[in-house]
Amino acid sequence: MDVDTASDNTSIDDKIDDFCENPTRDALTEGLMSLLKPTVDQLDERIRATRICQIELKQRIESLTEELQRINEALQYPLDTDSYVKKLVNAKHKITIVSNILQTTQERLNKVHEAVEKSTAKRKTLLDNSSAYSSITIEPDKEEPIRAEADKQQQ
């Protein structure tokens, strides 16, 4: 087997051309990207809004807890506000848990978004490279001197 033939079989140029000339795969990729990207963006936006609301709610619960404690201390005959304070503390704890879950979900969505962007960029690069390779043509009358020059350089 010739050495040049073996290197041609593993050429990445051949694989790039095969990958990029598949219109079904390109259409499928475009369709999936157009379906996933708006959903990921919308989820990301809603998670951010929910986290902001939860932070505001957490701050209000903290201020309400402090206010109830001040009122309780100021009264000569303290009311039984301990049960309400405990409920507020439990609500604050639940909000913190949900906030952590949302933060983890948002990080995962950001990773999916980055993967979609990388895939799109990689695909565009492959398409640009394949169009650059296919746009290079050699005129028949100039082909022989180019081959002769290449043979001389290899020797």
Structure description:
The chain has helices at residues 3-9, 12-20, 23-74, 82-135, 140-154. It is an all-alpha fold and 155 residues long. The protein has two domains: 22-77; 80-134. The longest helix has 54 residues, at 82-135. Mean pLDDT is 75; it is low at 1-8. This is Biogenesis of lysosome-related organelles complex 1 subunit 7. Residues 132-155 are annotated as: Disordered. Residues 139-155 have a biased composition (Basic and acidic residues). Keywords: Coiled coil.
| Mean pLDDT over all positions | 75
Helix fraction bin: over 70%
Q: How many strands? A: 0
How would you describe the shape?
Answer: rod-shaped
Distance between the termini: 19 Å
**Contiguous uncertain segments of 5+ residues:** 1-8
How many domains comprise the coordinates? 2
Q: What is the subunit organization of this protein?
A: single chain
Query: What is the N-to-C order of secondary-structure elements (H for helix, E for strand)?
Result: HHHHH
In short:
By secondary structure, the protein is an all-alpha fold. The chain has helices at residues 3-9, 12-20, 23-74, 82-135, 140-154.
Topology, pairings included?
Layout: H1 3-9, H2 12-20, H3 23-74, H4 82-135, H5 140-154
Helix pairs in contact: 2-4, 3-4
Question: Which tags fit this structure?
Answer:
Biogenesis of lysosome-related organelles complex 1 subunit 7; 155 residues; disordered N terminus; mainly alpha; Snapin/Pallidin/Snn1
